[in-house]
UniProtKB/TrEMBL annotation:
<dbReference type="InterPro" id="IPR022644">
    <property type="entry name" value="De-COase2_N"/>
</dbReference>
<keyword id="KW-0210">Decarboxylase</keyword>
<feature type="domain" description="Orn/DAP/Arg decarboxylase 2 N-terminal">
    <location>
        <begin position="25"/>
        <end position="266"/>
    </location>
</feature>
<keyword id="KW-0028">Amino-acid biosynthesis</keyword>
<dbReference type="InterPro" id="IPR029066">
    <property type="entry name" value="PLP-binding_barrel"/>
</dbReference>
<dbReference type="InterPro" id="IPR000183">
    <property type="entry name" value="Orn/DAP/Arg_de-COase"/>
</dbReference>
<dbReference type="InterPro" id="IPR009006">
    <property type="entry name" value="Ala_racemase/Decarboxylase_C"/>
</dbReference>
<comment type="pathway">
    <text>Amino-acid biosynthesis; L-lysine biosynthesis via DAP pathway; L-lysine from DL-2,6-diaminopimelate: step 1/1.</text>
</comment>
<keyword id="KW-0457">Lysine biosynthesis</keyword>
<keyword id="KW-0663">Pyridoxal phosphate</keyword>
<feature type="binding site">
    <location>
        <position position="218"/>
    </location>
    <ligand>
        <name>pyridoxal 5'-phosphate</name>
    </ligand>
</feature>
<comment type="subunit">
    <text>Homodimer.</text>
</comment>
<dbReference type="Pfam" id="PF02784">
    <property type="entry name" value="Orn_Arg_deC_N"/>
</dbReference>
<feature type="active site" description="Proton donor">
    <location>
        <position position="328"/>
    </location>
</feature>
<feature type="modified residue" description="N6-(pyridoxal phosphate)lysine">
    <location>
        <position position="49"/>
    </location>
</feature>
<feature type="domain" description="Orn/DAP/Arg decarboxylase 2 C-terminal">
    <location>
        <begin position="18"/>
        <end position="354"/>
    </location>
</feature>
<feature type="binding site">
    <location>
        <position position="356"/>
    </location>
    <ligand>
        <name>substrate</name>
    </ligand>
</feature>
């Protein structure tokens, strides 16, 4: 997917626009599968929250992936995309018992992360297979908002509550078929991951009828040229050895599961926006684009870095710009970033825009959400139309105040 392809897509479908490279997604899936080729039973469950467009989900299903979901809506999207219910795992947080029971009827694998709901669900549905999400109390991740396995996290059942957990399972006669953990995102040090895996193994020894162990994900991807990333191949070699050793001790072969989202789709995504204005102040040159954090919130929310290229004039002289959006408050994508000289009307491409970008977009300032395009077999395929004015009003109910009684 070359810069001229991105420019052509922006001209055809309008800007801003999200573009995803199917070839890169398939490459990442194959890379992860190959890293764990020594494992007889491997399940890659794509984390739908990263990018939930129905066509992306269908592509994942076509590759043989399972699906990791966090809401009943994502479960239904997965079913709509053709996933077998048995290949969908549902890992909610803080949802009602009623929602979990509704998902049970749909046939997805239930994953419960708190003692209260576990006890209620077990008392009402003791025969339904349930996975348990533990909190290993391991601080991992590139940002406090995405570190989810530490002691103060709202996610998972504390490993210090295992005795209570075992009493609930014994009293209800529940069928526990899996153990799950997720320590955080953007994990770089695989030793931290391997350390947490030992905690998962120790917890699993308390349960005699397990079918799988789910190690979560959080693999770090590169955000700029020369950036460091999780060494998937090294992790595959070391974790596979540990997992096979555990299975021998456990007495049977279990399924090793992961739930990558960012790893599969982040680098495949490009966000293309047009420069509306170049604004010079006393100390800064601003490049103002036809978008804002209503379309790409990660830099403002997480301080995330997205490489920005001028795809209209890639060979131009390098200058320093602060790239900003059109939202009515501080809305900065990059500060004093070195970019090829920008002119009004140029297209800028933001890298690593495949994960947690469109899915976190909104209609703030009553702006429309962009189109999405999948680059597949060397052609651009529209997979989501750009919103219009009718979309803003679609679910609003307009009152007639002249007819409302005092």
């Amino acid at each position: 997917m070359k810069d001229q392809n991105l420019s052509a897509i922006a001209n055809e479908f309008g800007s801003p626009v999200y573009v995803y490279d199917a070839e890169k997604i398939m490459f990442q899936h194959e890379r992860l599968t190959n890293a764990f080729s020594e494992i007889a039973k491997l399940r890659i469950n794509y984390a739908a929250k990263a990018l939930s467009n129905i066509s992306i989900l269908k592509l994942m299903n076509k590759m043989g992936s399972g699906l990791d979901t966090v809401s009943i809506q994502e479960v239904k999207l997965g079913l709509k995309a053709g996933f077998d219910p048995s290949k969908i795992i549902y890992t909610p947080n803080g949802v009602s018992l009623e929602e979990i029971e509704e998902v049970t009827k749909l046939g997805a694998q239930i994953n419960i992360d708190n003692l209260s709901i576990l006890e209620q669900f077990g008392a009402r549905h003791p025969k339904v297979p349930v996975c348990i999400r533990i909190n290993p109390h391991v601080m991992a991740g590139g940002n406090t908002n995405i570190s989810v396995g530490h002691i103060d996290s709202k996610f998972g059942i504390s490993i210090h509550q295992i005795p209570h957990l075992l009493r609930i399972v014994e009293n209800t006669g529940m069928n526990i078929n899996g153990i799950h953990m997720h320590t955080g995102s953007d994990i770089l040090d695989i030793e931290v991951f391997l350390y947490a895996s030992e905690i998962l193994f120790d917890t699993a020894k308390h349960f005699k009828d397990l079918e799988f162990l789910d190690f979560g994900s959080g693999f770090k991807v590169p955000y700029k040229e020369g950036d460091i990333e999780t060494n998937i191949e090294e992790l595959g070699e070391k974790l596979s050895k540990k997992f096979k050793s555990f299975c021998e001790e456990y007495g049977r072969e279990l399924t090793l599961a992961f739930e990558p989202g960012k790893f599969l789709v982040s680098e495949a995504g490009q966000f293309v926006a047009k420069v509306n204005v170049i604004k010079q102040t006393t100390s800064t040159v601003f490049a103002g684009i036809d978008s804002g954090f209503n379309h790409l919130i990660r830099p403002m929310l997480y301080g995330s870095r997205h490489e920005i290229r001028n795809i209209s004039h890639p060979e131009g002289k390098q200058r320093f710009y602060s790239v900003v959006g059109y939202i009515c408050e501080t809305d900065t994508f990059a500060t004093n970033r070195r970019i090829s000289e920008i002119k009004e009307g140029d297209f800028l491409a933001f890298s690593n825009a495949g994960a947690y970008c469109f899915t976190m977009a909104s209609n703030y300032n009553s702006r429309y959400r962009p189109a999405e395009v999948l680059w597949y077999n060397e052609k651009a395929h529209l997979i989501r139309e750009r919103e219009d004015f009718e979309d803003l009003l679609r679910h609003q109910v307009e009152m007639n105040f002249d007819k409302v009684e005092a």
